[in-house]
Amino acid sequence: MTLEFYNVHEAVRNAEGQVAKEVAELAANEAPARIESDLAHMVLMLHEDLLKAFRALSLHAGEYADRLRDEVRLGELARAVEAYYAEQPLLRVMMAMVQIQLLWLSVAGVKCRHYQTERMHAQLCSAVYPEQPVESVLARVAACCATVYRAGTAYQQQTAALYHIISLCLHDQFQRARDLLLMARLQERVQAGDQALMILFNRAMTQLGLAAFRAGSMVYAHNCLDDLVNVGSRNGLLRVLLGQQGSQGAQGAQSEEEMVVPAKRVVPAHMVNL
Fold first, then answer.
1. Are the beta carbons of 163 and 145 closer than 8 angstroms?
2. Element containing residue 5 per DSSP (H, E)
3. Which of 64, 93, 206, 218 is the most exposed place for a label (fewest CB within 10 A)?
4. What's the pLDDT tens digit per position in 120-141?
């Protein structure tokens, strides 16, 4: 009996040659090329690549600031694609979710003070699109969340509501954020969610507690932060519960417990809460 082995290197070389040949044929052909995909999924892949870039870079690197500008461009692209798919609710919801994440991520800023978020967002947008007027972050987040609330799945609605709460808290809208948390009944529903939803809920409760503190509601701030801080500090898992491990260069060695969060769940450095 003879065995025939598959030569991987030869297959890769042949594939590269075939791709180069097809690219040359497309370049010589003036007819438009058909791409078997859709714009919405391409934007989703760009969003994932942007998050990977944030996680791989140091917060103090110059390229990190360039990626922050890229998120503004990606947000505008997602907005244009949402308008393009005006008659397709599912794709519109996908693009609205991307915008919600990018917008609250933008206003979080790089170690910024929370009451400067609108101004910092305006500076970032003006640097990328100086000819366009800057829209209010809260108004745009609310519009995107309304799209998700109308046509999204239960999971998407819960995720959008948590991002909405975080955005309101960052802009010191404590009363509105608290009311949204109660109306959406997120504390009851999030228990059945996955790890990503639980981390997002913990981050929303952290921001709600900080917003309550700034508003002078000390009892509510204590109720929001007490369980999270006590459990996290006692077990050494506070950063795990918030999905943040910091950059490798800045934080140094990490314990085994802190490595529980998968890499794709770790938030970028400029989104760290505590």
1. yes
2. none
3. 218
4. 666 666 666 555 555 677 888 8
